[in-house]
Amino acid sequence: MTDTIDTTETARQERLLRSPSVLGYADVRSVRAGEAITFFVSSADGADFDARLVRLKSPAIGPIGPAFREVAVDAPLDGSHAGVHQPIHIGSYAHVAGPLPVERALSLSALVFPTLLEPSARTIAEVRSASGARLVLRSSIDSLAADLIDSDVVVATAALPGLTERAWTEVTVSLDLDAGTVSVHTHQFSAVGHLPLADRGVSAAFDASILAFAGASLTFAASLCDDGSHHLPSTCFNGKLESPRLARSAGGAAVASWDFSLDIPSAHIRDTGDLGLHGVLVNMPTRGTRGAGWTGDHLTWMVDPAGYAAIHFHDTDLADAAWSPTFTYDVPADLPSGCYALRLQPSDDSTPEFYVPFFVRPAVGAPTADIAFVAPTTTYAAYANMHLRVTAQFNELAHGRLTVLDSTDFLLLRMPELGKSTYDVHRDGSPVIYSSMNRPVTNFRPTGRMYKLCLDLMIIDWLDAMGYEFDIVSDDDIDLEGVSALAPYRVLVTASHPEYISRHQLDAFEAHLEGGGRLMYLGGNGFYSAAEIPPDRRDVVEVRRPGQDNLWRVNHAEAATSTSGLPSGMWRNIGRSENALTGVGFITQGFDACTFYERSEASRDERVSWIFDGLAPDAVIGDFGILQGGAAGYEIDRHDVTKGSPPHSVVVASSSGHSNLYDLMVSSILDTLPDAKRTRDPIRADMVFFETGHEGAVFSVGSIAWAGSLSHHGYDNSVSTVTKNVLDRFAQATPFAAPERA
Amino acid sequence: MAASLDADAAHLLGTWAAAAVGPVEEQPVEQLRNSGLINAQVTGEPAPMHQVVDLHVAGEAGPDVPVRVYRPSEGELPVVVYAHGGGWTLLSIDAADTLCRQIAVDAQCVVVSVGYRLAPEHPFPAAFDDVWAVTAWVADGGLGWRPTRLAVAGDSAGGNLAAGVALESRDTGRFTVDLQLLLYPATDIDLQTPSMLTLGPEPRFRLTPGAMVWFWSNYLGDLDTSVHTTDQRAVPAAATTLSGVAAAIVVTPGFDPLKDDGKRYAEQLAAAGVHVELVEPETLPHGFGMMLGAVPAARSALADVTTRVRRAMHPRPAIADEFRRTPFGRHSAELQLVLHEMRSEPIAGKPFLFISETNQEWVLGRYSDDVPPVPVVDWSTRFTDLESAEWHVFKLRWKAMFGEDLGDD
User: Is the pLDDT of residue B230 over 80?
Assistant: First the structure.
């Protein structure tokens, strides 16, 4: 031992602790060979960076599994680039470019429902004249005030006591340059649960000679400054706004009136007045949310738009980093289908690398295989920048393990502007409903926690190692193109955790099976939650979790998505249980320890015994693996005919011996019962097979950890054997006969 | 392949053999007691103690018994009653001073070293009675507290005495012994064990058949006529059964003519259902506990032994032990409750693991109490497996929750 500091080691440690400084994202997650993908890159301090296109053939999981195979792909973008720092402006707002038809006087009113009042003032609305004079209506815990500002000097302030949090108040701000007055009036709506409050009003006088308000624009829920190329929002408001109206004078007739119940799926707000002063929404505030006119009689804005005429703004909304494009990659027409990534690093290698993965599928009409791996891009989006795992007090408790992090995870602590996932809540406690992939995403990568892409690459690695020809098709493609995206393929192989499924995707999977296709569901907690991809925002998923007793629940009244107005939540609660598609349904999760499968008596029948060909009759399946030592665990699914599993489906193997963490999840439903932690429900993953009756079949393992066992012992193991037996049979054209009815 | 004798031990034994005037049984007892062979250089540097006190304890039937009480730290620690070796004939509290201090500090126990009466002036049961009396005194709270856990220990002849006290306490119920630590003990009068047949004839190992007969006879009288050879207090191996006696740590070095004696006793204890840890430092000779200064390997062998004593005397609460065995997976309800409490810590200050080498090395980190929290990584605390990391954090949290140190292992 010496006291000498090992400078190499110290430098290594310091570099590891630094979060990646070159970040990026792409405009799409899936691109066809022969088409283009555009990348957006930001480099801290504008430092030079190196870009490299790589094909990801396996994940970077260290010595416990296959070596990391990132194969360089020659691309014009490879090499060093001059870096540009591109900031992210988080916080949603509405903007009406105008010009507003006002000059010397105006009156603006809106219904306001603050959800987070703080000492610092937040902007409810801002009118900005062409000359830069501003009328700002701001709200803090102490006051509701209107500032008249000219050349950044506050000319006059009219202030009232603060609004009541979570009460609807009609707020009117009026300005009269001729009279030299600015005033604010409030009328809080009477509602059970709030003390009655008398109407209030206040005026302030000023010398008007220096002011004019021609050519004005209007912003709701933020103040905007303009850096020449971007609007930069600040002091973003947390709360709902509804029915803003603009008049040329206090008490005058409205010249513009924005009805937020119109065009709810869109990013536009519509002025119902003659002038058509429509506006845009930036960073996707929540639409389809209950407004002041809510009655409780209807559960979707499609039926009762007037009840949903509010928009909920948050200072942590982010739809799109909105960076300038850095380069576009024209995917060669002969580039093989696969998982690829743009790898970014500062040229001086001072921080760890950052990956921007994407999937390449064959050119139209040129599928190269009978097998398709379905990349769960909708699920990746729902989880994008999940703060929960990094910052939630209960993460360790739920996982039964210390939280394991690297400096890419630290980005979520160091750059709040990266935004949140649908597993997070806004600062006012409301759930994050929209999640975009058009921003740097810390948990969509081949490194870090073995979950989602990092684990799914184990399936891709296995397919490759076993010599299968396969294409990759993504959720995004299926949502857009329907079953035609799947039609070229006889066998669909899923990822380890295809949890989020849109209507279009679910329809396509069902149509695929009805068309004779085969499905290998090699995961757990799949096909579970409804998600929607807004047609005009294909980088975004919308997820609402009505009725779930967790952090992110939405009220049943807001279960209809703003994308479609259709129900959201667990598919089983919408009558489309995952059991029907896969034969199994999610029951619980644990994350602390995994177990293995044992064959059922029913598996001896020749209808299914071929699944285990090559294994000893009493062999257990998957008592090994890189995910906590077993193939059964993490999140698991069980066969249950009462929940929709096909009556003719066969449980061929099941796991047992799961830890108490798996108990807790199930028992949470029953936690008003004494000793609820001792559930009597069987906790197990079921491996299930059934014929579809359309010449195809379905095979499901009901466990996320399955993927982690495929590579064990040089791919020569019981999990690999079972998977291969099924895939080989599924890939044959030979029809599966429907079983005789008993 | 048999290990060879530790070089330092060989050197020491060679020095002693060269200085020997003749077989031990042919020397006058007083001359042997004053030989000066077991000196400070050989026994080694005495560990500092919180407190060392010489006392006298009332004897069972005879005179007061001198004892030396070693306290490694404040507090009402578990207690080890120690009987030194020397064939019931030789040596003293002083000879075992360094050894007793080491046991005290390493095992975090109070050690009470017994200056029992020596044979042949004071034959059986004098030595036994003195150790018994001191053990009873300790058990009754003579030190000022009734120990939560009590061990009897000794080396060589002292191991014989300790084993006898353990047996007798089982049968009389006078007090409860939780652990017997038997360092290269004499438990049986058997000159035909393999180790005695192979090592006994070598004078440098100092326990020739002739010496053994002399030692036993000093204690029990003529072995052919002695009525004590079937008394378990004198010859523990003579006990009708070993069932129900205290858990044992039996140490049998490789170069000890008594090795197979002690080993057989350990096996018989195990066969009787007693929890036994058998420690076999292969390269060391009989009496290595007296050689901590001259033989470095004796120190490390003793450290292994004292670690076991500490674990036995400071048993982990069952749920901590359960977590150590099974950090991930199914847990008892009691452990679940503690884990839920531990893992529900607020984010501020909460530990996490930072990936240093993917799935290979992790570093302990903590969240600061800033908002948002700042991750702080302590590069001096690294783990190469997640189980060790969980155990490390569990111990920290246990200490914070219950104030109790769960030990290093």
Answer: yes
